[in-house]
Amino acid sequence: MSIPTILIPGIQGTKLLNTNTLDFDTIWSMIQSRYETIYDLLLKQDSRFEVNPKSIIERGDVEDVAYREIVHVLERKTKQPVYIFGYDWRQSSLDTAKRLANFVEYLKEKLSVKKFNFIAHSMGGMVLGSYLKTLQGNYDSIEHVIFAVTPFRGSIQALISLTMGEGGIRYPMFNSSDEFRKIARTFPSVFELCPTYQNAVIFEDGANFNIFNPDHWQSNIGDDDWGMFLNRISHMKAFYDRQNPTMINLREIPLEVRNRFLILMGIGVKTKNKVIVQPESPDGRVKNFFNFDSIDSEGDGDGVVPFESASIYKNDILTLGIKKKWTDFSFHALFLHDGRVQSTITRFLLNQTSEHFNGSPWWTVVDDSVTLIPIE
């Protein structure tokens, strides 16, 4: 039976084009060198629309360096096609999940198939988690699912990008903090990526911090557009609603389905995992100052997604850690480019999960750089 694979890239993994130009001007790309039109990405409160009335931003092709090799490896080893689901990563994962649902139905009819493998990279895992929620318990179309470096509970890096405007989620096109803030603060996706795991953000005096309370945020963050800020905070609160969250709780999926799920996370890199909220900034101009550089602000992770966020399902779904090697460049962004990751994924998709001849688990490699994240 033919089982194609759907690949869902992460944030910034898809080029964005202004289709209201004669040459489909590339507005975002990892190798973009012309940034005079970067403000075309600015969104209104109604995120369906850009601020610039002449801009109509749509997806282009995915980033070659991040995904070309994994596509070729999968198609060669599984003998099945890979379909790439590129998307506008500025938008909410909920909206993108609805587009993914339409894409899956389209492929079902086009290919006359009933099942798919899914591989989701980074924020693509949030899209996939939101899509799984829309299935309402019917997982007949799901064969294997692989989440790769997914920030299930967000990342400090997203908060940094909204606050400081630099470092963030690796936006190399911005040449100043001010430029980045104004653009990133209009993206629903970046707010959805803010950290929600326990003790990610805490007040210096030990009081509870509520990331969904705008009064708890650094006081100057809404300066650009207070109405926009309140709108995006409200959206984020709805996205993570405790009674009806947008992303499915993977523990609620039946065990026989979860047994076909795999989570891969990066480890061995110092990763921001905590923010201390101080009463004011050193210069006294800002209240609720976000200190990203406290003594205990770093832990393990892949450099972008902390252990605390990537490992939340380790007791329920097979979760493997891939250790960064000194030769790895941009470990998180190029995670699927790693040969160990590619081998682990192909074995899992091909059900090559028997122990090695020496009794070691199927995922092990000679240098022990692929390890099981222990159950607690």
Automatic annotation (TrEMBL):
* Keywords from the named record: Acyltransferase, Transferase
The species is Neobacillus bataviensis
Q: Is Acyltransferase tagged as a keyword?
A: yes
Q: Nucleotide-binding among the record's keywords?
A: no
Which one Pfam family would you cite for this protein? LCAT
GO BP: lipid metabolic process
Q: PANTHER family under this entry?
A: LECITHIN-CHOLESTEROL ACYLTRANSFERASE-RELATED
Listed GO molecular functions? O-acyltransferase activity
Q: Which InterPro entries match?
A: AB_hydrolase_fold (IPR029058), LACT/PDAT_acylTrfase (IPR003386)
Provide the protein name. Answer: Lecithin:cholesterol acyltransferase
